[in-house]
Specification:
Layout (H helix, E strand, L loop, with lengths): L1 H18 L3 E4 L2 E4 L3 E4 L2 E4 L17 H37 L3 H24 L3 H15 L3 H9 L1 H13 L15 H11 L4
Antiparallel strand pairs: 1-2, 3-4
Helix pairs in contact: 2-4, 2-7, 5-6
């Protein structure tokens, strides 16, 4: 009987330790518990690594091109954190909205989240230049895999999406524009990878 109780307690403690950031203390030392795979009667640790991008130093044709690239770096450093935050907020709102069945409560929740976003980011967004605003639109598409138009339509409805698309077109912008990391937006993609790698 005691054997079964001790085995049960051991399993509970082991699972709690595994969930507690996979760290155990053995003989006073921190030991990390890793998932493992078995290959040919050998157990190997399974470690997931983030991709590393090797980007050669940029060579410029002239001083004007170097200044344009530096300005793009400066603008992306300012705008990229906003796009990452937008991604996190979008996924949170999408996840919460999917749980709400009542359309009135759903609308109230979206309105409440919109107000929170305004309070937190309105000042930052108002200080953006047109160029930085254009970059933010592209980066939101990059981060969420949805154009700004699609996000507005999904959260606020077709009329709001149409209205904001019309306003954007007046200023020469397009909320339906897709991010193209291989052609038109390749420099943006390169700089974002450098920022993510801590190189900029």
């Amino acid at each position: 009987m005691w054997y079964k109780v001790l085995t049960f307690l051991f399993l509970i403690v082991t699972s709690l330790l595994a969930n507690a950031q996979n760290i155990m203390i053995v003989n006073g030392n921190k030991v990390y518990v890793l998932p493992a795979i078995k290959v040919d009667n050998d157990t190997l640790p399974l470690i997931r690594l983030h991709p590393v991008y090797i980007i050669p130093p940029r060579k410029f044709k002239n001083e004007r091109e170097r200044r344009r690239y530096s300005r793009l770096v400066r603008d992306l450093k300012k705008v990229y954190p906003l796009a990452v935050e937008a991604k996190l907020r979008f996924y949170y709102i999408e996840s919460e909205v999917s749980k709400i069945k009542d359309p009135i409560k759903k609308k109230q929740f979206i309105k409440q989240q919109e107000q929170l976003l305004r309070e937190q980011f309105e000042g930052d967004i108002r200080r953006l230049t047109f160029r930085q605003g254009r970059l933010l639109i592209k980066l939101i598409d990059r981060e969420t895999d949805h154009t700004s138009y699609e996000l507005i339509k999904e959260l606020k409805g077709s009329f709001s999406a149409f209205f904001w698309q019309t306003v954007a077109r007046v200023f020469g912008e397009n909320l339906k524009e897709k991010y193209d990391p291989y052609d038109e937006d390749k420099y943006i993609e390169e700089i974002v990878h450098r920022i993510e790698n801590g190189q900029l």
